[in-house]
Design goal:
Number of helices of chain B: 0
Largest sheet of chain B: 6 strands, mixed
Distance between the termini of chain B: 37 Å
Largest interface: A-B, 27 and 24 residues
Strand content of chain B: over 45%
Radius of gyration of chain B: 13 Å
Shape of chain A: globular
Oligomer: heterodimer
Chain lengths: 116, 108
Amino acid sequence: NAGVTQTPKFQVLKTGQSMTLQCAQDMNHEYMSWYRQDPGMGLRLIHYSVGAGITDQGEVPNGYNVSRSTTEDFPLRLLSAAPSQTSVYFCASSRALNSGDSYGYTFGSGTRLTVV
Amino acid sequence: SQQGEEDPQALSIQEGENATMNCSYKTSINNLQWYRQNSGRGLVHLILIRSNEREKHSGRLRVTLDTSKKSSSLLITASRAADTASYFCGAGSYQLTFGKGTKLSVIP
């Protein structure tokens, strides 16, 4: 199994450009989320999804859109890139909580984005 | 605001010593999880402790949870150079919020 796959690994954008960060998982996980990691700030939650067709905002959603049309994919769209969005982006997935139980996350290897 | 906050920010020890990291959180949680991140890599899940558990072991890892103090600790026994990494706690239910991490350096 590949786990969580993020593409691209590196990207440089110009201010104002848009792009989509891809995230795919092959573990049939229902829960998926996006985090950004900045020096001195730790990981901050951008958006998350508890299943296909259901998304919600996290701590820092401004400037980002998500959609979840399938269980496997959870792309993150930057609408108009700004230098403040320079960061490392991580996608994570986890099993559903139908039984009220909790499971660990599987993280992707990250996308390092620079906005100039 | 961040739910999990790790302490200390950095820790340097000799190989073979034990390493203890702490995590505090703010609101009621369903579970607390610890992750390791090697430089330039994604986070790797280490251990999960549920809110009704007080202690959990996995190999050289020991995690405690005190819900009355809203705190957790991660103990790595007999540390190795390969344990050098950043360690994060994630607190919540299915939606986890993380702190800034503890950077552990194990000196051979």
